Every structure is written in C-alpha cells, then in structure tokens.
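Record type: ASSEMBLY
Status: queued
Input:
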Amino acid sequence: MDRRAFLHSSLASLSLVSSPLTASTVSNSEVMRRPFIWVILRGATDSLHSLIPSFESRLTELRPTLHKDALADALPLDKGFLLHKELNFLHTLYGQESLLPVVAVGSGYKARSHFAGQDYLESGLSRAKIDSGWLARAVKARNTNALAVSMRVPISLQGASDKVDTWYPTKLGKSNDNLLSALSTMYEGHDELSSKLQKGLETRSIVRGEVSSTKRIDNFAAICRDCGIFFKHSEALQAAAIELNGWDTHQNQNQRTANMNKKLDNGLAVLKKELGDLWESTVVCVATEFGRTVKENGTQGTDHGTGSHMFFLGGAINGGTIAGKWPGLDETSLFQKRDLLPTSNTFGWIATALKQHWALSDDQVTSIFPNQTGTSMQLIRRENT
Amino acid sequence: MANQLAPHQLAYRALNRFSIGAKSGEYASALTDPMGWVKAQLDEALLPSLLAPEVSSQQLLAQVQLLQKQKRAERDGREAPIDPITHKPYERVSNKLPIDTFNRFNFSLIEAQMNTSNGVLFRLLDFFSNHFSVSRGSDVMKVLSVTFEREAILPHILGRFDSLLIAVEQHPAMLVYLNNERSFGPNSPKGKKSGLNENLAREILELHTLGVNGGYTQSDVTEMAKAITGWSIGNSNNGEIAGFAFRKQGHEPGSRTVLGKTFVEGGQSQGEAVLSMLANHPSTARHVSTKLARYFIDDTPPMEVVDAMVDTWLNTGGELTSVLNTLIFHNLTWQSQEMQFKTPREFMVSTLRALDTSTVEEKLTIPWLRRFGQPPLEANSPAGYSDFDYAWDSSYALLTRVDWIDMLTRRVPLDIESLMVNTGAAYFPPQRLMQIENAGNRELSASLMLLSPDFLYR
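Status: finished
Output:
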C-alpha cells in the first residue's frame, strides 16, 4: 500500500475521528474566515527598549548603557514613541495603519515569576488553570479549530482537545506504511492514540506538499511559515498560537533585544507573506507575561518588572495610532517604585479584538474572560466586521 | 484499602516510574518485591561509581577562559598569551573544545543510563538536574552545564537538602547561568562599577526552594540577592582558580532580613546561612516534596503522600533518603491508576534499555531528543522541562516517536524474546499480543511493542 492509499484507507477506517485541520463544520462554511493568531513572547519583553518613549528624559540617567542604544536609529511612530531599529516590518505596517501598539499594559499578574506569569497570561482566569486557556475557550465560542505551532499544546489552547492540533517544523520523518497501518489497527479502541496518529499524518502530508526548500531558516521564521501554510490549506482553521522564547535579558540587553526583535519582525513578515490574501482578514496579537524594571541593573540588563506593551497587527486591524494611556516614569508614577505601571489590562484588549473580529456576543466574551468587558475602541476595521 | 493493581502492574511502576525502564533480568526482580527493589538502590555507597570519572569543571573552565583570551588576542592583533613557566605561548585551545565536551558528556550519560543496574539513582539524578535546571549557550556554559550534575548534584542526592542546595548555588554553572558572578552590592567597593542582579536570588526562592506561592516578597528577593553578592567565579588568566570564588570586595556590607529573619554580616557564610534556613522551611519541604511525588507517581499525587513526605522532611532536617523512603513505602503511592505519557527522555531511555543493547549510534540519541523537544541541558528556562503529561502528549510527539522507532529497530540488533520480557508484553491484552506475535517481521514486531499504548505510557 502506498502512502496515499494508506491515508485514504485509514481515513475511511477512522471516520469517527475528525481532525481539526480537515473537519469543516456548518457554521464555518457560512461565516467568513477571520484568522486570529496569538504570539506569546516568553521571558518578559522590555517595553522601554522596544516601544521607546523618547520624551522620558529620566531614562538617560536610569539606564546609562541601555537607553542610548534604544534611541539609536529607532523608527518614529506618534506621540513621541519610537520602535526599536530592528522592527522594520512592523514600522512599515504602522504606516499602512495595520499595526496598533498598546503601551503600558499588564495581565493583572503582579508577582514577577515568569512561569506563573505565563500561566496567568495564557489561562486568562483570575486564578490560572493550566487546563483551560482563553484561546481554547474562544475557539469553542466561535466553533472553529486551532493549531499550535509548537511541540506541545500551550496552556492558551488547553481545554479544547478535539479542536486543536499541533505541528512543529522539523526535518520531515518518513515512517514506513506497514508500520503506520499496523499501528492504526493496534490503536483501535484507544481513542487518544488513534486520533493523534491520524491528525499527525494529515498535518504532515499538508506540509510535505508545500515545503520543498531545504534552505535553513531561522526557527521562528519556519514556525511562522508553517503557520501560514496551514491557514492556506485548511478551511476549518481560524486560530493559531505560536511562541518566541528568549526575552529574559538580565544582562547584555542591547545585543539580545536587537536579536529578539529582529527574529520577531522577520517571522511576522514571513507570516504575512504566507497568508497571502488571507492577511486582509487576519488579526495577530503579540504579548508577553510582564515587563522589566525601569532602572538598568548592575549587569547591563534589567530585572523582572510589571507593565509592558502589546501589538495588534494584520489587515483587519484599525491601526496607525498609539493605544493605551502612558502613566509616566516619575518615581511616584511607577508600580512599587520600580516598574512601568499598567494602565489597562491585556485581556481587556484581547477581549475587544476577539469580540469585534469574531462577532462574539457579550455572553461569549464573558465565557472567555470572566472578568473583562473590553474597551469601546474600534480595534478592527469597520469594513472588516 | 486493598491494593487493586496486579503484581505485574506494580512491577511496571517500579521499573518505569521509580527507575528508567527494565533491562534483562530486572522485570523478574521487580515482580517479586517492587518496593524492596526500589529501596535497595537508595544506597549512598553506589553513588561514586555511578558515572565514569571525567575531567573537572575547574580544568574545563580554565581552558575556555584561556581560549577566550587567545581569541581576543587574535582579534586585536596582539601577542598570544604566554605561559609564565615556559615563557612560550600556550598551546592554542581548539575552538571546538566546548561543543565537543558538551556532546561527549551528554552521550556518555545516555550510555551510562542504558547500561546501569541502578536506574533508580539515575532517575533521581534526572529529577534534581531538572529541578536545578541550567542550559548551554555560551562556550563557558557548554562546559560548565555538563559538569554541574556530576559535581554539584550527584554527591548529594541521598543526603540533606541543604548540602545539595549550597553545592548547587555555589557551582560555577549556576552562578554564570543566572548571572550572579558579576552581581555586586551597591555599597561594596566593586558596586561602583557593577551592581546588583537579582536573577539567581529570585529563582532560588521561586524555583529551588519555597515555590512561587511560598510566601516571599520582592523585598525578600532583593535581600537574598544582596546576601549572595560576591559569590562569583575565578579567572585563571589572572592566576585565580577557575571555580567558585567569594569576592569580598563585591559583597554588600551589613545584615540582611529574609522572610523576617535577620542574618548578620559574615561574608560568604551569610548567604549560606540564608540557604540553610530556606532548605528547612515548610514551604520548601512542600514545594520539593510535591514535585518529587508528581515525578514518581503522576500529575496529581495523593495529598496524603505529600503530607507524609513534608513531615519526614521537617523531622529529619531535609534528609532526602528518608523523604524518598516515605514516598516509596506509602500505600497510596502504588495505587495510582492514572497513566502518564512518557516524557521524551523516559521514552528514549526505557526503549534503549528494553532493547538491551550496550551501545547505540550517537546520532540516534541526542539529535532525536532535540526533535522530541527535550535535548539535554537546553530547557532554556531555569524552571527546566515540564513534569506534566500535557507538556509532552501531542500528535506531533506521537508521530516523531513513530519515526524514531522505525529507524531504530532497523539499526540495532533485535532480541524479540528479551524485548517481550522487558516491555512487559506478556501482560498486554491478548489481541494486541497476537498482533505483535503475528507481525510479518521482527522489526515490525519490535516497533509495535515499543509503540504500544502499554509502553508509551507509564
């Protein structure tokens, strides 16, 4: 039996198992596809070094080695804010009104542990639960499917296992069909394994058809590329989660921030390219677990802080302006005299974006974020809703 | 309460939850007395010979420091560093020394795990290496990270937690990984040039001891950071020993207050006193006991078992062997019905042991662990790799394991009879066993055993 024949026969024999990537539900064919892509920046991104308030003169003194670097060749936005010099693609989007930076946001988590902070950001509940993520709850409300482009299902997508698939770009394997076929027999009666085997094979066959180049590209760029490929191929897919690690810059921050921003910017540009026309109806949301100290530490870096920034981008975004309220950096304006004060809640912005993008009811929004009503600002282009 | 699991299920748990999978002969021993089989290995006398001797972190760090100096001299067009004894330039250290050392140590650990008859100790070593996770990165971290578990962890895994904790926090690998080597007190002589970095202090409280909800505040983090200012590493290029060095000139003067307790100035011993207090704190006992129970039982270990471990911890001053005995001999430990998807490491090592091969091509091991998402010393997070089932169980994970088994079974010798014993195949459901026995060839038969639901989970 060749691979194609095996795939077909196993599809037939496992007709009860429908993969998120191939299933099409009634509602999906009637509703326009509006991708929502969630990008988690793990490690706590330093807002003051990426979305730079050039008017804060205190920073020269508080950050003797970092602030000069942040200002160098930075790209102007509005209200005195600049984008880090490596965020060229984002800067272009801003000019096209497809980037909305939000300043001084926080999830509500205030204790400065990466891991608890990330769980909180992904769970979206007042007490983080690792088996219930806000994106999974949104996917259920929209009755659509999601993909995690990571080796495992992140907490954001936990709690909707029948609607979520995983994929990670690696060298494609090629197990022999005899073994695959024998395994699909052996896993009969073991729902979890049989559905995983089936989903895995389908996902792999999609990428196998698309990616021929063996050229080495940056890992995050490959993640973004494959994410775009799946949206092109799967009508049933409307949500995805991807992540970029490495923002914990306790030392050597100048160089590391440049590297990380470059990776992020490049990856998002690849994502736009792969999405093609679908970009016009797409929302990408980028956020991190918390920010970093306003004051530079003793080793040319910064320690764990509180407030940070987030980005919304995509053809569906009503951007080209700075959102959020800037609290200032006077000592009395700081959170606990050390961190940027969050003046609005990360989940409030996400709730608003989801509500407008996916036309969700107030009850549905409450089922996703029990404590958020959202803002009145129009985040999504009107012609797109 | 009556024990509802059959003897072969208890043996499988002893072998795959408390140890790293069965090699030939072990299934039978574990079947007779699962608890006794585990306990017999908790013997400090076994520790020194667990891993073959290797070059020390001190020698490796000195070589990398010299390499860095040689590279700087080449870059700036200066004269190569001179050996003060021979008055000639030192031999050029190979650029590949760090990565070659990193790879050699990692593969030798896999080989040791394949061949050991003390799997319980390796599993315990894995637990603490991940609890005190460090990652490769720079050349310095490549050589330090691999020596860390041998030098700082292994000697203490059956001793008191405070000795383990102090050894870990003073090892150059941890000091460099979490940036403490240049963290100096703002009021110390060195503090004018380089100041405080609270990275290590925070992770000590959050990850290594109390746990994130263990009851500390931002002020405790800052005070902890000040208590360990000056804990640094020596530079052999300046005639120092390339190991832990206390830099008095960088230590923040004065007494410190952590968790409401005051620690008087005492140089290096100030930080050690704080660590000893933390090691015996009830929050630490609970945090580490919970993680141990989760690791050895399942994602949701019975609270009674954790409570008993905490009692033992507090009554014995953190004697790890006693805490582990409380875990092993607790009735509820052996009644867990929940099966966990093996982590990539658990799956790889238990597979290689079941195949009973004494060696394997390196390229079939570490590169595949990377594809599985769990390469050694690359967690890139001080929290280490997740112990939870959800972190590893995905369609991607399953398919990658299928690819690996497919390749492996065609490249190693296959003894089907002993594989059946080691995987416990004799106890598989009859239909599954029949499919395995009737498979057209030995590769397929072996692959099915290793990818059976019975062996993918533990």
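Annotation: Residues 1-18, 24-30 of chain A have pLDDT under 50 and may be disordered.
Annotation: Chain A touches chain B through 54 residues (CB under 8 Å).
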